[in-house]
Amino acid sequence: MRDSQATVRTLLTRAAAATLLALAAIPGAHAQQPKLKVGLMLPATGTFATVGTAISNGFRLAVAEQGGKFAGREIEFFTVDDESDPAKAPENANKLVKRDQVDVLVGTVHSGVAMGMAKVARDNNTLLIIPNAGADEITGPLCAPNIFRTSFTNWQPGYATGKMVAERKHRTVVTLAWKYAAGEQSVAGFKEAFEAGGGKVIKELTLPFPNVEFQPFLTEIAALKPDAVYVFFSGGGAVKFVKDYAAAGLKASIPLYAAGFLTDGTLEAQGDAAQGIMTVLHYADALDNPRNRTFRAAYNKAYKMDPDVFAVQGYDAAQLLDAGVTAVRGDMSRRADLVKAMETARIDSPRGPFVLSKAHNPVQDMYVRRVEGTDNKVIGIAIKGLADPARGCRL
Ligand code: PHB
Asked: Is the domain defined by 155-281 classed in CATH 2.40.340.10?
């Protein structure tokens, strides 16, 4: 009995050794790397649901293009629906960080939720990449070595739109936005450039997020008769606003301007009501560069729909992560080297190549676009290489 047991043991040991030898002969098969855990915290419900889906699609496309791996480590996704609810942000972010132990947190759309994520990321020293939310503070006074953004600050497109509207010789503007960080900061950026260019914001109207009862505001705008209107809305709310503005008969009499979120990912649903609207953003559907053309073709093939700015930002979040992970050959414990590689990366984006500012926010061109059919067509550049001033960031 004892002999045969010994024989079995010897055979097993030999078999194990043979397997190891065989594995060692396959390039890349030795040192099986653990999976790289990515926590996607995005809205899957509510007014920003389509925005969340586009970001997720873009991120996953970039991963798929790398064979599902960065530096040999297979990407494993953990997801949570953040419902664009800031009150639930700490709990949702902690599910990914503490329970799922993700290597990197990616999200989100809503500025208030992103502020909660940034706090969790700081408290736990977790790597965070923001693929949309523009909260100025995150790459301002709250900037941190472990926090990156591949989208914009709320100030950036607001400021660039304000410059464009002033150059179009409009003198008085009424603004309307959801009353939370994104709306307020977008309007503040707009006002800064518009008034520096000689214009005057005569009234700032707001409604709570995510309300879409626009009628009383449209009545007030009609009575105030400004030269133009500037708004911040996005997702489902943007679809309804553009339709309501046209239905109220205002589109013909008072030109409507916005940061480009108003008409991104929304044009199929907005239809005729959106035609001709001019916006400013760091992306445009028909941007004529080879990178954008191949990206749009691949996205279309994978998801049977057109990408938008949100898909681009998700795609670039994955590209930025890949740049870091590849530089440290998948060893996430080399945090300083990872951060350095991400800070100095030049992202080959469908929006055009961009680098990050010292505060970890894209320095990027702001395009003037006009809606034609289901495309935001580029008609000019409002500001080239616009960096957020990053007031209060000490990095
Ligand atoms: C934000 O809350 O920061 C936000 C949301 C939707 C957008 C842009 C910014 O389209």
From this structure: no
d(CA 75, CA 316): 16
Angle, vertex CA 50, rays to CA 84 and CA 56, nearest 5: 85
Q: How far lies 209's CA from each of 87, 151, 232, 239, in Å?
A: 13, 21, 11, 15
User: What global pTM score does this model have?
Assistant: 0.92
The finding on whether 309 has its CB within 6 A of some atom of ligand 1 is: no
Condensed to tens digits (0 to 9), the pLDDT of residues 247-257 reads 999 999 999 99
Numbered ranges of CATH 3.40.50.2300 in the chain: 36-152+286-360, 155-281
- Top pLDDT among 20 and 45 is at 45
- Best mutation site among 42, 48, 234 for ligand 1 pocket (most ligand atoms within 8 Å of CB): 234
Closest CA to 348 of 65, 39, 127, 145: 65
pLDDT tens digits, one per residue of 65-81:
999 999 999 999 999 99
Residue 347 one-letter amino acid: I
Q: How far is the CA of 133 from the centre of ligand 1 (A)?
A: 5
